[in-house]
Amino acid sequence: MSTTITALIAEDELLLAEHLRAELAALWPELEIVAMAAHGQAAVDAALAKRPQVCFLDIRMPGLSGLEAAAAMAEDWPEGAPFPLLVFVTAYDQYALQAFEHAAVDYVLKPVQRERLAQTVQRLRQALGGRAAPADDTAPALAHAMAQLRALLGSGMGAPAPAAPPLRLLQVSVGNTIQMVPVSEVLYFEAADKYVRVITAGKEHLVRISLRELLPQLDAGLFWQVHRSVVVRADAIAKAVRDEAGKLSLQLHGSTDRLAVSRMYAHLFKGL
Amino acid sequence: MHTTPPRFAGHAHSGPVCQRLLRHAAHAAALCLMLGLLLAAMAGWRHTGAKLAYSFAIGMQCWLYIDGGRALIARLLHRRYPDDGECANGWPGWAWMAFCVLLGAALGYTLGVLLGDWLTGQRSIYWWEASWGSIASTAIFTLTMASLTTGYFYTRGRLLAAQAQAEQARRVAAETQLKLLETQLEPHMLFNTLANLRVLIGLDPARAQAMLDQLIAFLRATLSASRSGSHSLKDEFARLSDYLQLMQVRMGARLQTELTLPAELQALQIPPLLLQPLVENAIKHGLEPHIEGGHLRVSAALRGQVLLLSVSDDGAGLDAAGTTTGTRFGLQQVRERLLARYGQQAGLSISAPEAGGCRVEISIPLREAQAPSA
User: Fold this and answer.
1) Closest to A160 (Cβ–Cβ): which among B195, B200, B325?
2) N or C end of chain B, less CB within 10 A?
3) Torsion sign across C-alpha atoms A19, A23, A26, A31
4) B308 contacts: CB under 8 Å, gap ≥ 6
5) Which of B230, B271, B275, B270 is nearest to B257 (CA)?
6) Is A160's CB within 8 Å of B203's CB?
7) Which chain A residues are Cβ-neighbours of B250 within 8 angstroms?
8) Phi, psi of A247, deg, nearest 5
9) How far apart are CA B56 and CA B62, in angstroms?
10) Is the Cβ–Cβ distance between A93 and A75 less than 8 Å?
């Protein structure tokens, strides 16, 4: 009986991607690489389309990093489908290694060495074997993966080094003038391609910075990320409402906008 | 009640005021002991205990009033003039110090004699009862000792401060050097290059060898460029080309490069690897994060009597790049090298071309580039 295992490789450097594929082919003949992605967003799209059982994700990729790609996958992963096992691949990053150890996530160092990769394959086989037995334990697997990703994202790795004092004023250029918007007046930030939409009680602005770059400059206690593309000022939240499908959304003071909370961040709203 | 908390601007040697006073007290006590023994010896070791008692009673009080006065006045002055570095360091200036020495010595001597009398049970002749000659000689002796001791503490403080400053400067220089090396030998770049090399050895040994040669040339240049000196533009462009070819193995078609160096400019001299951080920035912040990659152009040109060197890319652009800390260190380092070598004559400007991306331009006076290495 041939039980093929499906996998995805996300790596922006072609030679390294091919090498990983070749090494895996030698070590794990039953493994079928169903997708090769050259950047983070391609990895997310391919993973959601093909639903592989294992994902090998390079940490530093153009667009989304491996970590952000994994988080995006977890956010949009269909209910009921088993979430892939994640293996991160990195060339050098001492902080990443600490974070990986801490979150108990499997990782491989580049250059990939066969003996080390064999260990990883062994571990993946065990995990997949254990997973096949009970019929439906997908939810815990996804929850576990999300807890790991939260720990990794929380460790600040992959993000630019945090600026010392939190941002207090946003300088928004509008034509020839620069408008000052106090951060304390912002209701929420929403990523829009390379820009961030800044929504205050009465107005909306666009700033030329990515949400990823803006996030470390905000006071983490005052601003909560509730979705891959939304950061909300905690004080502006009036209530969190769960609908029949179990999806959380936020209602704000001073705005009629409803903000969806993705499952990566649903743990922020527990209620007493 | 204090309205403002006392501030002691942190010069390395000053330390907490109390610690410093205690250290001075120990020195003063040693001096009192020496002086007391000297006086006892001069008196043929008669009344040694009494001599020591007077020496300590007078000497330590002189020290207390002079040094205490110095610390107090410096502190008051510092509160009044917070920007004065000397006051922050506990030095009120010579005028105030002379005042402290005069008053402190007079007070210390007078009260010291009284204390000595009380300790020994003797009755000295007080200065107001003594002859003018004896007053003068006592005053001269006491003031001389007080001045010498003050001078000793002052010089010692200066010396310690200078030492601490030199130490600090050395540490900063070493840190900068280390950071420079770390950015040039960026571990992520190095390990990814090695990973590629390892794969190539199996697939295409000839290409692997070429890549290894480029890596060797790049490493050699990087390690020697940390020192000063200069090399020709031709060498500079050759090293950049090594680096870019290494990056091309990794990035493939995502990195398109174009190096333009007119033949007549090849011999001009510039500091080694001056452009390297700019090229690295362009790739790291401009092209690597860009999914489609892009073009990187490095060129040298002459405009009048000015040599223009430019590095430009059509990648992610300034707004994205300007916010990461890495860029600033690279740019700052290039700026510092230019300033150290050419003073205000050289310039560095950053612009965002219409087409997107980022362009950095360096201008160096032609005659500076023609001069052999400084």
Assistant:
1) B325
2) N
3) negative
4) B300, B301, B302, B361, B362, B363
5) B275
6) no
7) 13, 15
8) -85, 140
9) 10
10) no
**Predicted pLDDT at A157:** 55
Burial class for A146, CB neighbours closer than 10 Å (0-12, 13-18, 19+) = buried
Topology of domain A169-269 in CATH is OB fold (Dihydrolipoamide Acetyltransferase, E2P) (2.40.50)
Instruction: Return the closest-CA partner of residue B222 out of B174, B279, B169.
Output: B279
**Interatomic CA distance for residues A155 and B341, integer angstroms:** 41
Tens-place pLDDT, residues A67-106: 889 988 988 888 878 889 899 998 876 667 777 777 767 8
Q: Is A233 on the interface with B (CB under 8 A)?
A: no
Q: Distance between CA atoms of A97 and A108, rounded to whole angstroms?
A: 10
- For residues A125 and A84, what is the distance between their CA atoms, to the nearest angstrom? 13
State the span(s) of chain A assigned CATH 3.40.50.2300. 5-154
8 Å CB contact between A105 and A153: no
In DSSP notation, B159-219 reads HHHHHHHHHHHHHHHHHHHHHHHHHHT-HHHHHHHHHHHHHHHHH-HHHHHHHHHHHHHHH
Q: A39: which chain B residues are within 8 Å (Cβ-Cβ)? A: 291
User: Is residue B129 helix, strand or coil?
Assistant: helix
Is residue A203 exposed (0-12), middle (13-18) or buried (19+ Cβ within 10 Å)?
Answer: exposed
Q: Write the pLDDT tens digit of every residue in A112-127.
A: 889 999 999 999 998 8
CA B26 to chain centre: 31
Considering the four listed CATH numbers 3.40.50.2300, 3.40.50.720, 3.40.50.1820, 3.30.565.10, the one that applies to the domain covering A5-154 is 3.40.50.2300
Do residue B250 and residue A209 have CB atoms under 8 angstroms apart? no
Where in the sequence of chain B do the CATH 3.30.565.10 domains occur?
204-368
Region A22-36 average pLDDT: 94
DSSP-derived pairing of the beta strands B347-351 and A230-233: unpaired
Provide ipTM, 2 decimals: 0.71
Confidence at residue B13, expressed as pLDDT on a 0 to 100 scale: 44
Question: Do residues B293 and B253 touch, judged by C-beta distance below 8 A?
Answer: yes
CATH code 2.40.50.1020 region(s) in chain A: 169-269
Residue type present at position B8: F
B204-368: which CATH architecture?
A: 2-Layer Sandwich (3.30)
**Residues of chain A neighbouring B291 (CB-CB closer than 8 A):** 38-39, 41, 62-63
